[in-house]
Amino acid sequence: MRRNEDTPATLDLFADDAPPLSSTEQIGPCSFVLHGFALPLIDRLLPALESILQRAPFRHMVTPGGYTMSVGLSSCGQFGWTTDRSGYQYTPTDPQTGQPWPEMPLAMRELAQAAADAAGFADFNPDACLINRYIPGAKMSLHQDKDEHSYQWPVVSVSLGIAAVFLFGGHSRSDKSQRIPLFHGDVVVWGGEDRLRFHGVMPIKQAVHPLLGEQRINFTFRKAR
Ligand code: MD3
Ligand code: FE
């Protein structure tokens, strides 16, 4: 079976074009896809996610330009990423409850550190994890991640649930983007000269994942301060 746009996004381990269950693919000078890297931790990650969402449910934030994001957002860790009409910022509390963001669960911190290590970035200690929820049709337009105090640390992203096509662009918005399919359990590490590259997510295709249903969840670990 070929994995194409119309194929349900359950990972076919026997497809001719399937990545090996666990392997590293270099997609930029300082960027690596660690295929399946999160799978051994999945039994710890899903309950951790549930408990975060009880205290900080997904919400659709408004951009400074007045658009409501199609992606639902939550956060955990010392800082959470937020947007409203006044701009983007990392905040120590959830603006919806006034409470601190839920703590970053150990399984999540360990995963982010291990992935950064595996990609050659030692001592990554994220203080923020943005949690994005995509339902079919949701997308993220090309942008740069520029709200962190320092760009010396990598960003680690974990994909769970239905598949996505990630757009990995260049240093100008108009540079051509590579399309990189991301599946349940894939982890991507971006650092060094790739840290400020434009990136986005194509509209998510309808599919059902056996564990997560009709959704894609993405964790993005960062050092905000
Ligand atoms: C490449 N999220 O939340 S994670 C975001 O799949 C975001 O939800 C996407 O872009 C998602 O800001 C992609 C991957 C990612 C995050 C940061 C990057 C890729 C990056 C920074 C530089 C280059
Ligand atoms: Fe981003």
Oligomeric category: single chain
CATH topology-level fold name: Jelly Rolls
By CATH reckoning, the class would read Mainly Beta
Secondary structure class reads mainly beta
Tell me the span between the first and last alpha carbons. Answer: 45 Å
Q: Compute the number of strand runs.
A: 13
Are there runs of 5+ residues with pLDDT below 50, and where? Answer: 1-9
Enumerate the strands of the largest sheet in spatial order, edge to edge or round the barrel.
Answer: 1-2-11-8-13-6-3
What is the percent of helical residues? 10-25%
Structure description:
With 225 residues, the protein is mainly beta. The protein has a single domain (24-222), classed as Alpha-ketoglutarate-dependent dioxygenase AlkB-like (Jelly Rolls, Sandwich). Helix content is 12%, strand content 31%. The chain contains 2 helices and 13 strands; from the N terminus they run ββαβββαββββββββ. It has helices at residues 42-55, 106-118; strands spanning 23-28, 31-35, 72-77, 80-84, 87-91, 128-134, 140-143, 155-161, 164-168, 178-182, 187-190, 199-201, 216-222. The strands form 3 sheets. A 7-stranded antiparallel sheet has the order 1-2-11-8-13-6-3, with helices on one face. A hairpin with a 2-residue loop joins strand 1 and strand 2 (31-35). The protein is globular and about 50 Å long. Mean pLDDT is 94; it is low at 1-9. The site of N-(carboxycarbonyl)-S-(naphthalen-2-ylmethyl)-L-cysteine has 15 residues, from strand 6, strand 8, strand 11, strand 12 and strand 13.
